[in-house]
Prior knowledge:
Elements: H1 2-14, H2 20-33, E1 41-47, E2 54-60, E3 68-72, E4 80-83, E5 85-89, E6 97-104, E7 111-119, E8 123-124, E9 128-132, E10 142-147, E11 150-151, H3 171-174, H4 182-185, E12 191-194, E13 198-199, H5 208-221, E14 226-228, H6 237-246, E15 258-261, E16 264-267, E17 271-276, E18 279-284, H7 299-314, E19 322-326, H8 341-356, E20 361-364, E21 370-373, E22 376-377, E23 380-381, E24 392-396, E25 416-420, E26 424-430, E27 435-442, E28 458-465, E29 489-491, H9 495-498, H10 508-519, H11 521-534, E30 539-541, E31 557-558
Parallel strand pairs: 10-12, 11-13, 12-14, 18-19, 19-20, 20-24, 25-29
Antiparallel strand pairs: 1-2, 2-6, 3-4, 3-7, 5-6, 7-8, 7-9, 10-26, 15-16, 17-18, 21-24, 21-25, 22-23, 26-27, 27-28, 30-31
Amino acid sequence: xxxxxxxxxxxxxxxxxxxxxxxxxxxxxxxxxxxxxxxxxxxxxxxxxxxxxxxxxxxxxxxxxxxxxxxxxxxxxxxxxxxxxxxxxxxxxxxxxxxxxxxxxxxxxxxxxxxxxxxxxxxxxxxxxxxxxxxxxxxxxxxxxxxxxxxxxxxxxxxxxxxxxxxxxxxxxxxxxxxxxxxxxxxxxxxxxxxxxxxxxxxxxxxxxxxxxxxxxxxxxxxxxxxxxxxxxxxxxxxxxxxxxxxxxxxxxxxxxxxxxxxxxxxxxxxxxxxxxxxxxxxxxxxxxxxxxxxxxxxxxxxxxxxxxxxxxxxxxxxxxxxxxxxxxxxxxxxxxxxxxxxxxxxxxxxxxxxxxxxxxxxxxxxxxxxxxxxxxxxxxxxxxxxxxxxxxxxxxxxxxxxxxxxxxxxxxxxxxxxxxxxxxxxxxxxxxxxxxxxxxxxxxxxxxxxxxxxxxxxxxxxxxxxxxxxxxxxxxxxxxxxxxxxxxxxxxxxxxxxxxxxxxxxxxxxxxxxxxxxxxxxxxxxxxxxxxxxxxxxxxxxxxxxxxxxxxxxxxxxxxxx
Length: 563
């Protein structure tokens, strides 16, 4: 429409020339200068600052004229509308593009709304639909879907079709099978939570990797609010600017209210909080301890804000009894060096705050695996989830990225109840003020079905029962480090394929080293060759994990020769 309109204007103007040669030249120039409109894309929802609000954010590649969201109770009658705002993003080489944010307000709970976004110059999106703030019932409790560290490529958790060959894993790619993965959760989920590290990385390929990540998640994030916290892959200036701008619609209540990235000042989304159902959620950037700041937003402002927010939340525990803080890096984990200095830095800064304000869960990503801890305080733990006497720490950073798995290179400590390094995501099912059902869903295409659980299987589940929410008491806090844990368990994506388990509970990496030392490299190569013959049909070389347990830079080799 935009191209046709420009053509008609230019045609009338060019027709004023008497010379045919001038008219032809004029029209040629007009057609070269005219560009087809770029419709809204990368649409995603998040919860608003008020219970009757829902925020929608989208992207256009061209400037707009009159950003709008319009919505209603049917796809054919979008009778309500609200203006939005646009911001130019100028940090990607060779292009300027625009983020748009608009708020739907006056929404009623338990109501399905239809909506679309756009403007007069770029046109409108398709019509999407969403169920606003469903009220849970005994048969349908609140379902929160948690994940961390998901790329554009290798987004194995999004749907079964996602792979390492392409960053494209959008609605069309996933359409063949929506019965498993995150796409299967959209119909019943009340909220998605992504605990940092998006796209790998948002600013790569002049920002086009970020574009594709948001095109991929549009299939779930247009029907269910997609909430976030900041990760280390958003630390570098270009990636941080992408994160701040692309999620500036979040319901931030941070102090200071603005954060200045390389693209300018806008909403501070490094820390903020919201309520949903029976849970008070707190997004909190652990990256402030590792160099991220704009000079105004820093460790001191974050900690002061966190204490104030948690104090207010404790005064409302009759309404929102559960408190969940989520960030990116681990305070407790047991896979590799991340669990030493960086984890101690965060424990020293934050563990007492978690304890003093009775935070039920601290949830993070960063480690590309899953690990669920017992209630833990100062390294001591109680091996029960009935009326925990300290915060429960959970790592869920295995949604899938080009960095692949992160192996466990150390023995499982007694405060670790369950750990697995398959790709996976979490379900946090909130039944009521006292009971939460936790499940971990395996989404690993490299987990050969004969040897392990199939894609979409629940590999871990437990119940958390808390009858008395509030600040924890040091007199009853965990005080021992059990020497053993008879109920702790572990799953490793290597182990069922390699056949090295000996019942000792040692990490698979240690068993591999022992095998190579005892039998030699030739025997190890023969074993790997046998594994390859049984592997997934499109993989010819297994993942290369580093000796230190870091999977950065690891690759698959695929049958077409690409990495």
